[in-house]
Write a structure and sequence with these properties.
CATH class of the largest domain: Mainly Beta
Shape: elongated
Strand content: 25-35%
Number of domains: 3
CATH superfamily of the largest domain: Nucleic acid-binding proteins
CATH topology of the largest domain: OB fold (Dihydrolipoamide Acetyltransferase, E2P)
Number of helices: 4
Mean pLDDT: 80
Length: 261
């Protein structure tokens, strides 16, 4: 049964006593005596048009907006004098504390512009604009990068498999094996978000837009000896010291023996 219908047949027996004989149900009911509830038509309220917002929506251009406050599901944003809604997922690539947004002005793109009986509905996205800008910057950076060059960057995320580094508009990945010369079990013990790092560009896949980096190649290699190696060296040193002392004793014994003759 459709959610837009009401089961009139279930109550008709009780109600039939108050319905006069020969009563015709008319157009409000179908043949099964189910009430037909037509959907309300969308009312076009032309006076609610906002020329600036509508033009930005049609052209796909950015428009400035002030984040007024946090509301259910997102933020209320004032765009060209119009109240708009920005979902949490569209305020940024990675959601931050509301204090990072409320009271600040950002550029947005209008992703939805519609009207109904209640007025104008405007939905905006800052994230979409960020991603478009990053894509353009990334393409330019990928063309400029050269394998083998050394760059300074900032760690943006640390994962189990490595760390992502912002190189100034494009991200590269330091695989866990390239973080340090020694074995790294947990990258979070070595790097954290916000750390500045010097990296070497190892490989660029321009088609896939991926960059492989190495941190250890920019560090002096330090060889750490194993416990077995340390024990062996200590044992060898002890043997060498014992032999040197024995040589001294033997040398003294020989001279004393000849002097007594």
């Amino acid at each position: 049964m459709s959610k837009d219908t009401f089961d009139f047949g279930a109550m008709v027996d009780d109600q039939m006593k108050v319905v006069r004989r020969g009563y015709k149900f008319g157009n409000a009911f179908n043949e099964d005596k189910l009430i037909i509830r037509p959907k309300k038509p969308v009312v076009e309220v032309m006076s609610d048009d906002n020329a600036t917002v509508k033009a930005a929506w049609e052209a796909g251009e950015a428009v400035s907006g002030l984040v007024e406050k946090e509301i259910k599901g997102g933020y209320e944003v004032t765009v060209a004098g119009e109240r708009a809604f920005c979902p949490f997922s569209q305020i940024d690539k990675f959601r931050k504390d509301p204090s990072e947004y409320v009271g600040r002005r950002f550029d947005f793109v209008v992703t939805e512009y519609s009207k109904d009986e209640r007025g104008l509905n405007v939905v905006v996205s800052r994230r979409a604009l960020i991603e478009v800008q990053e894509a353009a910057l990334k393409e330019a950076m990928l063309e400029r990068l050269v394998e083998g060059e050394t760059l300074n960057g900032t760690v943006t995320r640390v994962m189990d498999f490595g760390a992502f580094v912002d190189l100034g508009g494009v991200e590269g990945l330091i695989p866990v094996r390239e973080i340090a010369w020694e074995r790294v079990e947990d990258p979070n013990t070595v790097l954290k978000s916000g750390d500045g790092v010097t990296v070497k560009v190892m490989h660029i896949d321009r088609e896939a837009g991926k960059i492989s980096l190495s941190r250890k190649e920019c560090m002096q290699r330090v060889f750490h000896k194993s416990a077995e190696e340390v024990a062996a060296e200590e044992s060898a040193a002890e043997v060498a010291a014992w032999m040197k002392e024995a040589e001294k004793r033997n040398a003294g014994f020989g001279r004393g023996a000849f002097d007594s003759l």
